[in-house]
Design a protein that fits this description.
Structural class: alpha/beta
CATH superfamily of the domain at 353-495: Isoleucyl-tRNA Synthetase, Domain 1
CATH topology of the domain at 353-495: Isoleucyl-tRNA Synthetase, Domain 1
Helix content: 40-55%
Number of strands: 16
Bound molecules: 5'-O-[(L-methionyl)-sulphamoyl]adenosine
Length: 518
């Protein structure tokens, strides 16, 4: 059995409702997953929720609920949200699930036995908000700490620490020898810069029960729970272990029940994450895996952050984009299209309502929507919906775009792929304007030319449906059904020219993206 392409998202904290940033990350991952499947690869796409730790405990408290009841309620909302986005995730991990907790404990037991942890009393500063220890180095010039840390208190505490320091040079060498491990390049350089200019501190992996109880109990000391990041990162292997991934199971030596089918998932092909959690994924996680004796993920792919109207999104100021409201008004595909098309994977983005509406109008309604609607309407009107004989005038344009799109999808350059695909949308719309089928229809002597034009247009619509299927799946299913095709546009191989057969009768055209002039 070949190893599936294994792709993950960050798992979100359940301390509120999902926003644009969460939605963006999941949609990009979904498009990559769908594209790989379309290209014939088996894919395993994992997403889920990070439910332990101080942030969640505090949010539950503020809501007057126990953390578990609070998480259960929100987990239902987040899972419904994943469906709204039309994600094709193969599993959904919750870090409070027994399958995950047992595995984390098995790993902790193993690493403890291997001497990877030690106890130490720490005296210094602590940010409860960020759940992190701070040192003198973190102070600003005026002696204060960055407001993002919230209240910073002085504490003295005995904890368990994981030996990171010893692996610093190994990690630098690894990053240098494997340029594609962290992408884009400027994020890789950021990690290398950090590692070369700072001495790594060991990582505190426990929190005393007296201070925080919402976490996975340390299996070797009942007075502590596990630090939330040590728990959360393990989700990427706890799910494979539970599905019977022998490579991962061998490491944990855990007695995990309910093994379903044997599968090989680890190492992940892509961890898709935001820039703020790069250190956890590119420094802590590789060293944790090394200590476990597991291979590293093939790639950590890092995206930027969305702002709204040039400012940080924040619930307190009301400056947020609510994906649910956008989807209710404009449809899920308009939302999926916009976030992928607007922002490349890497830089920060800026949401404006005007920008969203303008792409909707220009690219979806007037571009793709108009092309499909007029192509199929004319075929219906002039030829009763019956596809004429094959004709290859636009075939070279289509073939060029198909090849470009495939190469870009294989590099996870989704924005580039949409730009390539729109070359074909624009070419076909231009072809309508140049060939003027509505004029040809008035002249019986031009009947054959009209047949040719109508074939080229309908076939281009079909090819576009195949190319766009990973991005806007529902719309492309509609295009296929309006073309009267009963199969699905989800196989990239179907993008080769000539799929529409002469004599085939199409279905009924209907607008894909209604204009919203008001
Ligand atoms: N729970 C941790 C991740 C653990 S992964 C083992 C966490 N959760 S989070 O809810 O704060 O963020 C989840 C993801 O959403 C992160 O990748 C983060 O970068 C992303 N985003 C949160 N806000 C964002 C924007 N405004 N824009 C784009 N992505 C953003 O961190």
């Amino acid at each position: 059995m070949s190893k599936p392409f294994y792709i993950t998202t960050a798992i979100d904290y359940v301390n509120g409702q999902p926003h644009l940033g969460h939605a963006y990350e999941k949609i990009i991952t979904d498009v990559i997953a769908r594209a790989r499947r379309s290209l014939g690869q088996e894919v395993f796409f994992l997403t889920g929720l990070d439910e332990h730790g101080q942030k969640v405990q505090q949010a539950a408290q503020a809501d007057g609920k126990t953390p578990q009841v609070y998480c259960d309620g929100l987990a239902a909302d987040w899972q419904a949200f994943a469906q709204k986005l039309e994600l094709t995730n193969n599993d959904f991990v919750r870090t409070t699930s027994t399958r995950h907790k047992e595995f984390v404990q098995a790993i902790l037991t193993k690493l403890h036995a291997a001497g990877e942890f030690y106890q130490k009393t720490y005296e210094g500063f602590y940010s409860a908000k960020e759940e992190t220890f701070l040192t003198e180095k973190d102070r600003r010039l005026d002696g204060t700490f960055d407001p993002s840390y919230g209240e910073v208190v002085k504490i003295q505490e005995n904890n368990y620490w994981f030996k990171l320091k010893a692996h610093q040079q190994w990690l630098i060498d690894y990053l240098e020898a494997n340029p594609s491990f962290v992408q884009p390049d400027y994020r890789r350089n950021e990690v290398l810069g950090f590692l070369k200019n700072n001495e790594l501190e060991d990582l505190c992996i426990s929190r005393p029960l007296a201070r925080l109880n919402w976490g996975i109990p340390l299996p070797f000391d009942k007075d502590y729970v596990t630090y939330v990041w040590f728990d959360a990162l393990v989700n990427y292997i706890s799910v494979p272990a539970n599905l019977g991934d022998a490579g991962v199971l061998a490491v944990s030596q855990s007695a995990i029940s309910n093994r379903q089918s044997a599968i090989q998932l680890w190492p992940a092909d892509v961890h898709f994450i935001g820039k703020d959690i790069l250190k956890f994924h590119a420094v802590y996680w590789p060293i944790m895996l090394k200590a476990m004796g597991l291979p590293l993920p093939k790639q950590i792919l890092v995206h930027g952050w969305w702002q709204k109207d040039g400012a940080k999104m924040s619930k307190s100021t009301g400056n947020v984009v609510d994906p649910v409201a956008i989807i209710a008004e404009w449809g899920v595909d308009a939302f999926r299209f916009y976030v992928v098309r607007e922002l490349a994977i890497g830089p920060d983005g800026n949401w404006t309502d005007a920008g969203f509406k303008s792409r909707y109008q220009a690219e979806l309604a007037n571009g793709l929507g108009n092309l499909v609607n007029r192509s199929l309407s004319m075929l219906k009107r002039y030829r009763n919906g019956v596809v004429p004989a094959r004709h290859d005038e636009l075939a070279p344009d289509a073939a060029k775009v198909v090849a470009e799109t495939q190469a870009l999808l294989e590099q996870s350059d989704l924005q580039g792929a949409l730009q390539a695909i729109w070359q074909l949308v624009n070419r076909a719309n231009q072809y309508v304007d140049q060939t003027k089928p509505f004029s040809l229809a008035k002249d019986p002597a031009q009947a054959q030319r009209l047949d040719e034009v109508l074939y080229n247009l309908a076939e281009t619509c079909r090819v576009l449906a195949v190319l766009l299927c990973p991005f806007i799946p529902s719309t492309t299913t509609k295009i296929y059904s309006q073309l009267g095709l009963t199969d699905s546009p989800d196989k990239f191989s179907a993008a080769s020219w000539g799929g529409l057969q002469a004599g085939h009768t199409i279905g009924d055209p209907a607008p894909l993206f209604p204009r919203k002039d008001a």
